[in-house]
Write a structure and sequence with these properties.
about 425 residues; about 15% strand; Nucleotidyltransferase, domain 5
Length: about 425
């Protein structure tokens, strides 16, 4: 018999048959889990651990049951690990039916056979990917056995009020461990910041791993998480998370300044990132070991010639050098690039001696050109070629975008009648 042709001729039969076989496998796996020391420890904790009982009593409030929501289980058709992880929550529902009433499940990797099995096990299968952003309307236990950290961030963010957080609990990897191992950047940034903020209000009870290496591997670092946020604390106050993001970006910036990053690496960052608001709005002193150059350029308008300027200052905010001049060009970007070229030329000559240089400009197009995006026009490219050659003579240089108010001194200097030498 050609098995491949046979499958193609009756797909529905094979899916149904696979589901029936999966149900038998789940039954066997549940017996295995039920007889394990691992599950016996979980069961005992739920029955006798006073701390857990206190938190579940508070979680339930006036309700009689909690709903269970499963995210990140994977596919039981393709993974034995997923079968064991599902067995745990099925046993909890069976053994603690006095406080668990229903289970909702979603995973993007669910197969058609998985869905059939879940429904036969009396689980509600979600058809829309909530991206772990379900807002709890009733006491809810979230079981998240194999999720990315940003999924935890999504869940916390969706319930980011004291009332919502106090009506949920999570059975997932330890928040403490996640925070230690999660980079404060990229898609995990929100999760890291929310974990850091919620930890003081979190009771974390570790799952005891006293069984075989398989259970230790499957449930390593698992813990119950209960929240007790004082209702007088407005954890969801608009702006709190935004401020956390800003502070994190500032800390990242300062750490980058202490590192041995190259000019090219900084250009990669600042060609994409706008940075943090305090830097864009204020004349912030450069970190120790760095010198800052603020540049400004404006093209010719009518009888007013094009003008440019530059101001160097050290980490103490002391002005080291100022320069300005006229430039016969209409394009503001070209005038600004001339200001940058002359400033870099001074650094190469040691006037001032800037091994590490921060350049700030309120011309967004100029900053993007210098950092490699977008594609500059022909006139700008001619200037940039000179600038890139000069940059090679400086140990490290980084070019940032700031707002006009943070660049006021350079602007006023360029537009003033003050006479300065460019030599």
């Amino acid at each position: 018999m050609n098995f491949g042709e046979n499958m193609e001729s009756n797909v529905d039969f094979h899916i149904q048959d696979e589901a029936e076989r999966l149900l038998k496998e789940i039954d066997l796996v549940m017996k295995n889990v039920e007889n394990s020391k691992f599950y016996a420890g979980m069961h005992l904790d739920l029955k006798q651990n006073e701390t857990m009982q206190k938190h579940f009593f508070r979680l339930l409030g006036s309700h009689s049951h909690v709903q269970v929501v499963i995210y990140g289980l994977g596919s039981i058709e393709y993974s034995f690990h997923s079968q064991f992880q599902l067995a745990v929550v099925l046993l909890l529902k069976r053994d603690f039916s006095d406080w668990i009433d229903s289970i909702v499940i979603y995973d993007p990797n669910m197969s058609l056979a998985d869905i059939i099995v879940f429904k036969k096990l009396d689980l509600e299968v979600l058809t829309i990917d909530e991206n772990c952003k379900r807002r709890a309307q009733r006491p809810t236990m979230f079981y998240m056995p194999d999720t990315y950290c940003y999924h935890i961030g999504n869940l916390l963010g969706a319930n980011w009020t004291s009332s919502c957080l106090n009506r949920i609990c999570l059975l997932t990897n330890s928040f403490r461990d996640r925070l230690t191992n999660t980079p404060r950047s990229g898609p995990d940034l929100e999760a890291a910041i929310r974990l850091e903020r919620i930890l003081p209000f979190t009771t974390e009870i570790d799952i005891k791993l006293i069984d075989s290496p398989m259970y230790a591997n499957l449930f390593s670092g698992f813990a119950w998480h209960f929240f007790d946020v004082d209702t007088n604390i407005d954890i969801g106050k608009p702006g709190c998370y935004w401020l956390d993001i800003q502070r994190n970006l500032e800390e990242e910036f300062l750490e980058d300044m202490k590192s041995n990053m190259t000019s090219e690496e900084f250009a990669e960052i600042w060609g994409i990132s706008r940075g943090f608001r305090r830097l864009r709005c204020n004349n912030v002193r450069p970190p120790p070991g760095w010198i800052k150059l603020n540049i400004y350029g404006i093209g010719r308008k009518g009888d007013q010639p094009g003008q440019y300027s530059g101001i160097f200052q050290d980490e103490k905010g002391t002005c080291l050098v100022r320069y300005k001049g006229d430039f016969d060009v209409e394009d503001n970007v070209i005038a600004g690039l001339e200001a940058l070229r002359l400033g870099l030329a001074r650094c190469v000559e040691g006037k001032p001696n800037a091994e590490k240089l921060i350049v700030e400009s309120d011309d967004l197009t100029l900053v993007q050109y210098v950092n490699g995006r977008p594609e500059p026009n022909e006139k700008a490219m001619d200037k940039l070629k000179e600038i890139f050659v000069l940059l090679e003579s400086i140990t490290c240089a980084t070019v940032h975008y700031i707002y006009e108010e943070a660049n006021e001194a350079a602007r006023e200097l360029a537009l003033s009648d003050e006479c300065l030498s460019n030599a």
